[in-house]
Amino acid sequence: MGAYILRRLLLVIPTLLGIMIINFALVQFVPGGPIEQILANLEGRGDVFESFSGGGGDADFGNDSGSDYVGARGLPPEFIAQLEREFGFDKPPLERFLNMMWNYMRFDFGDSYFRSISVFDLVLEKMPVSITLGLWSTLIAYLISIPLGIKKAVRDGTPFDTWTSGAIIIGYAIPGFLFAILLIVLFAGGSYFRIFPLRGLTSANFADLSLIGKILDYLWHITLPVLASTISAFATLTLLTKNSFLDEIKKQYVITAKAKGLSESRVLYGHVFRNAMLIVISGFPALFIGVFFGGSLIIETLFSLDGLGRLGFEAAVARDYPVVFGTLFAFSLIGLVVGILTDITYVFIDPRIDFEARNT
């Protein structure tokens, strides 16, 4: 197992490099870079994307000053050149990429172009929201979906299986943001009840509360956003667990175990569970990384949560490249490591799995 983990860790380097190369190359062709954003603000337009509408007198800006930048008309070339030096755009793309990767290998992600804060500190500032949504949503999805999926598999074809499947399909069909709006309308003072708060992770007087009070206040605030972000993962994981257990229950070793007089619980959790759970665990990295790092921009906006989802969107719109590439590098690295941890979990659940023998 040690040799396999070492090989997987070594593969992280070319995988990360490939991800960064592709995204860095794509960015070179995207209009409206950070300098154009600054120039748009200086000219009072506020948004560089207004310049790409095709209308108005700004369609050929930059011609008077000889600059290729959108919105550079009337600004001295020296000012544009100074901006290029400050942002590092006076260097060739290859040199910029190599410098960026050298810094990233030392976990130096630089500073945000527009926030006057390091990317690392900025991510730490937004991390509590992502930890809340990612950790609790994943935990609740697994704690509910696995027992429910097992029970549906055991009672396949019964009324219980039928009505729970209908509820699950309805839950899966409802978009997370629409479910969030429904929760707000019903329970956050929208039109009916005002049971839960509408914004933030904590109350204004959080620092003055006791330890128990802080825990209860935190749970009070996260209930609705966590429910909204869990619903789709809950439906998918439940059906995946059911189908996986159904496949295993029909196999010969289960029939043999029952013929020997073993109880149903002993057969399910002593024999079937290990084999059936492998496919469920295989989806853990995608679920965890998707919720933890991607988050939901709309859900964060609806509940006024300033997390990594909004950070990534705002950085992409503002062309804040240090934030975009720094978070991309860090999250890709963590995602690859979580994939390795998933393989280790495979071995923990089923010791018969031998990755080293498979790769020899």
Automatic annotation (TrEMBL):
One of its GO terms (cellular component) is plasma membrane. Coiled coil: none annotated. It is a multi-pass membrane protein. Signal peptide: none annotated. It is found in: Cell inner membrane; Cell membrane. Residues 127-346 form the ABC transmembrane type-1 domain. Belongs to the binding-protein-dependent transport system permease family. PANTHER family: INNER MEMBRANE ABC TRANSPORTER (PTHR30465), INNER MEMBRANE ABC TRANSPORTER PERMEASE PROTEIN YEJB (PTHR30465:SF66). This is Inner membrane ABC transporter permease protein YejB. It comes from Yoonia vestfoldensis. The lineage of its organism: Bacteria, Pseudomonadati, Pseudomonadota, Alphaproteobacteria, Rhodobacterales. The gene is yejB.
